[in-house]
Specification:
The chain is mostly loops. 0% of the residues lie in helices and 0% in strands.
């Protein structure tokens, strides 16, 4: 197995399982300051 180091340049922790029986990871976004508007599809 190849081990690849991860360098986190954001102010947020890397994704991680938050509970023992988690099915997925909690993802965070490193967004610029200000508002982000998501329009309809």
């Amino acid at each position: 197995m190849l081990s690849i180091p991860v360098i986190n340049h954001s102010r947020h922790p890397l994704p991680a399982y938050q509970t023992a029986h988690s099915a997925g990871l909690d993802l965070r976004a490193d967004l610029p300051t200000g508002s982000v508007v998501l329009g309809p599809l």
